[in-house]
Amino acid sequence: MSKLAFECEGLSVEPIVIKSSRRKTASLEVKNGELKVRVPKGTSEHWIQQFITQRHAWIIQHISSQLDRQQSYQVNPYKTGSVPFLGENFPLNIQMVSEKSSISFNQDRFDIHLNRRISRDPEVVTNELLQAWLVEAARDHLISRTRVLSENMKLVPVTIDIGNFKSMWGRCSAKGDITLNWRLILAEPDAIDYVIIHEICHLQEFNHSAAFWKKVGGYCANTQVWRHYFKERSVWLSWR
């Protein structure tokens, strides 16, 4: 174990040190319970250790809160027996069958049929079936909803597409193309609308200025509530 490692919530944290000749200052980043330390090239391990120690309380606080979020919102359908869809948790009914593996949604649950002769991990197959189904549901719901909202706002994107981003819920390009993360389909409808409105507003304000947020607030109440909502559920972005 490295000298930089320490304990947090009963877990060993091994900081990832990133050295760069272009960097002049040191910084810390906590993401998904992982600590990254960015420092100038040539920085000694002793200095890095002191830097971490001085900010230990901040690090512990952020790692602890992220671990709490992971525990509350981690998507693991095969083990938990449920999956979020449009803001509700639906149970999974998993059965081993002789037919080809398949999935169907019956309004109150997801039915997963796994071929009993599959050689791959059933959890992996279950995730693949669910994600494929959710991507298509996202394509239907998110694109049609974006069209409705953009028409209401009189700001029409050049294209609307579904993406598979690792760190963001949506994106609007400088050319006016909007791409939405398929995992948005896990969220409740009003939360989805917030992200869509956010991206549509970028068609007019390609920044995060006061004018931009005023415009978002004009179409979506409680923007701070929804920003917190997605921060709490950022672990959804890591469901692969």
UniProtKB/TrEMBL annotation:
**What's the short name of a Pfam family annotated to this entry?**
YgjP-like
Recorded hits in PANTHER family, A to Z, give:
UNCHARACTERIZED PROTEIN YGJP, UTP PYROPHOSPHATASE
Matches recorded under CDD domains = M48_yhfN_like
The name on file for this protein is YgjP-like metallopeptidase domain-containing protein
**Phylogenetic lineage:** Bacteria, Pseudomonadati, Pseudomonadota, Gammaproteobacteria, Oceanospirillales
Query: What residue intervals traverse the membrane?
Result: none
Sections of the chain in a coiled coil: none
* Domain YgjP-like metallopeptidase span(s) in chain numbering: 24-232
Q: Which InterPro entries does the record associate with it?
A: UTP_pyrophosphatase-like, YgjP-like_metallopeptidase
